[in-house]
Amino acid sequence: MTSSSVVPNTPLPTLDRLNASVPTDLDAKAVAKAWFKIFAQSAEASDAQAVAQLFVPDAFWRDMLALTWDFRTFSGLPKITQFLSDRLGSAHPRAFTLRDDAYLGLQQPFPDLAWINLMFDFETEAGIASGIARLVPSANGEWRAHTVFTNLEDLKGFPEKIGALRNHAPNHGKWVADRKKESEFADKPPTVLIVGGGQSGLGVAARLKALDIQSLVVEKNGRIGDNWRNRYDALCLHDPVWYDHMPYLPFPPTWPVYTPAVKLANWLESYAESLELNVWTSSTVVSATPVGDAYNVIVKRGDGSDRSFTVPHVVFATGLGANDGAVPIYPGMDVFKGELLHSSRHKKATDHTGKKVVVVGACTSAHDICADYYENGVDVTMVQRSSTYIMSIKNGWKVLMEGVYSEGGPPSDIADRLNASFPHHMGVGLAQRTTKVIAELDKDVLDGLRARGFQLNDGIQGTGFALLAWSRAGGYYLDTGTSQLIADGKIKLKSGTSIKQFTEGGLEFEDGSVLAADVVVFATGLGDPRAHVRKVCGEEVEAKLKPFWGLDPEGEINGVWRDLGMKGLWSMMGNLALCRFHSKHVALQIKAIQEGVFGERYSLTV
Length: 606
What we know:
Blueprint: H1 15-18, H2 28-44, H3 48-52, E1 55-64, E2 71-75, H4 77-91, E3 94-99, E4 105-110, E5 113-123, E6 127-137, E7 143-155, H5 175-184, E8 192-195, H6 199-210, E9 215-218, H7 226-229, H8 261-274, E10 279-280, E11 284-291, E12 294-300, E13 306-311, E14 313-316, E15 339-342, E16 356-360, H9 364-375, E17 379-383, E18 389-392, H10 393-401, H11 412-420, H12 427-441, H13 443-452, H14 466-472, E19 476-479, H15 482-487, E20 492-494, E21 499-503, E22 506-509, E23 514-516, E24 519-522, H16 530-537, H17 539-544, E25 569-571, H18 576-595
Parallel strand pairs: 1-7, 8-9, 8-14, 9-10, 14-25, 15-24, 16-17, 16-24, 17-20, 18-19
Antiparallel strand pairs: 1-2, 3-5, 4-5, 5-6, 6-7, 11-12, 12-13, 21-22, 22-23
Helix pairs in contact: 6-18, 10-12
């Protein structure tokens, strides 16, 4: 996992900085339509200078495949102008249409921050695209763009086979045989082999199927969903249901807001069946060796037989870390007479009834496991090695998601685009503000944690969990109630000193204190996601790959969902929302390559 690094702390376009105000008689729709008319005309004419004049100097343009065939963010007028000069002619954006809907109008997230939001559609040489722009006022009364987001939605001539384009033919008695033939690939190999059958693998398989691309998902577990089903019993999603819908098949309205892991596992199994995805369970990808522009893949099936395929694309959908987890090494572990295990191998609290348990770690898994031990009467102590960002789901999600991912909010496809339209670097200032708002709402429990000795932080550069998620995919706990148990002393805490060594009966710390333990559970992360690629493809291939996760200099996620450094090799990972959104990006790239319409990635650093 890429380590965190400092990102530009870009100033927000506040009214004070802009030396501007919002007129009381503002006709936001009229302003948006006037701006958009010039924007569309200038873009269609490939007039980069004219388009650039519609932006403020410190503006952002974020593009996902529509104009760059990549994930790029350009910050500042010189970079935006260069990008437009390089790409407008070849992409040839045209047929611009402004959406006159609920998302067209003035928004004011803070008293000193206001913009006019607008959404639009357009075409390029290869595809159908959408866009979102936010206009801010200037001292002379003009409104100019501070952010523009463009996104590839579909490929011309290759629409998804959904809705009116679905299969209309009746099937009398042949469906079972047809499905078996399709899923066994006896006559023709798959175009895409997907390693891993969790939400990321199934999501991209569903997207590919809708684009008429045959894929095979290889899942090592015995059942789809076992990646969730086999984890600790107390596991439950900390994201609300309206954030977590999967492609084409949203959760029903009776679904609980926070999904238990076993319920999600069962849903994934039914999802694969309902969407007729080709999945081989109890199977392992032994190797994937590059040969020319393809990969020779060997799959060992549950019955012990091997199948070999030559495929042009391999997608690694194996999660954010190695399954065995990352266990730190301490002196004396070999003499410890108790049980050592990683959280990925922990199942239920009652396995350790009557024993003294120490959980090393202070992020999500550690909190969940400690709460489960406490609720089952087990003596448990949390060992905090470094400070943690804490945000309650009760207050945090309302501040961060209200009106986007919320009950009664927009459809998830609209919410995803609204969310993506804030470039990560531009969002730093917003995250710093919302983090302070949430901390004030969470003041009582945070003060209780501090009084107990729990070490808190406010995230990287004061951004809460935002940059922690993008840079480390961890380092925080979205509180579902465990923080109060720690503040009340019901879950014991050891912090402020480091583990020195293990002894026969427990742990010794640098400050000389000791902690008795019969069981030590390491909730210390899931390791390096590159380990899966290394195991299947070898060290030579792994050495050619770009970094996994973490933000690149433009504020885009490294490697994942985009060019990974090896032709035909892809990484698909993330939470359910990220997989829902970006699975289509991966599928569109693969479809475009297979149909010969993929353009040139805009790799120029501007």
